[in-house]
Amino acid sequence: MNKKRKICVVVASRANYARIKSVLRAIKDQDGLELQLIVNASALLTRFGKVSDIIQTDGFEITEKVHVVIEGETPSTMAKSTGLGIIELATAFENLKPGIVLTVADRFETMATAIAASYMNIPLAHTQGGDVTGSIDESVRHAITKLSHIHFPATEASLQRIVRMGEDPELVFNVGCPSIDLILDCDLKKDPQYIVDKPIGTGARLSTSEPFVMVLQHPVLRNMGMVSSRLKKP
User: What are phi and psi of 9, to 5 degrees?
Assistant: First the structure.
């Protein structure tokens, strides 16, 4: 009897989960695969929505929970959390013995996952590499690309960047962004849980009976301490 191949997916945040949920479903439903699900970092914290509870409600079994976040919300604590993540994830991988590790996008927890897996000689797959954003995320993303063995970029342009970085074209697959798959699950009028139940930030509570515009702003980490200004000649 053939053993199932163990696919270990590391989910570290709400954003991670949205970007990989449809993949988790596909792995879970594939007879020849065994899903190992590690949930860590902010995905375990109540103040970030504790997405681990949502993951379990959605029917996924969490294999291991790994706490790695050092409080402080500074570049220093982020760097330290990355180091702690490497230590704790290396222990998890040693216990689980996955056939392949799948990591998502570009967060500091993703870097920890990539370093731990690659140093342990575990094949590493990476989603959404090759994107260009102009922030620290881009540097982290490209570093993870070079540590990874199989690549699943979201666009043709990103695929070409990964190939130009020297990765094997036969191991780079343009699959699009898996989070787009979730649109098929969403109906704001039928599923009010997708709407925030109380106002946050500015503006009134959203109404699903009227058109609305959602605006998102991504914080730019390099503005903390103005790295770009330090690199300029005096």
Answer: -110, 130
Q: Is the pLDDT of residue 112 over 90?
A: yes
Q: Between residues 134 and 203, which one has the greater pLDDT?
A: 134
On whether the pTM is more than 0.90, the answer is no
Q: Which of 39, 34, 35 is nearest to 11 (CA)?
A: 39
- Domain segments of the chain as ranges: 5-185
> Token digits for 98?
């996955």
d(CA 80, CA 76): 6
Q: Is the dihedral of CA 125, 126, 130, 136 positive or negative?
A: negative
> Whose structure tokens read 């260009």?
132
pLDDT, tens digit, 9 for 90 and up, residues 36-65: 999 999 999 999 889 999 999 999 999 999
Query: Which fold would CATH assign to domain 5-185?
Result: Rossmann fold (3.40.50)
The enclosing H or E element of 101 equals strand 100-104
Query: Residue 163 burial (CB < 10 Å; 0-12/13-18/19+)?
Result: middle
Can you tell me whether residue 66 is helix, strand or coil?
A: strand
Helices assigned H by DSSP within 155-226: 156-164
Rounded to an integer, what is the distance from CA 216 to the centroid of its chain? Answer: 18
- Helix (H) or strand (E) segment spanning residue 234: none
pLDDT of residue 191: 58
Q: Is 120 left (phi over 0), alpha (psi -120 to 50) or beta?
A: alpha
69, pLDDT greater than 90: yes
Other beta carbons within 10 angstroms of residue 65's beta carbon come to 13
Distance of CA 203 to the CA centre of its chain: 29
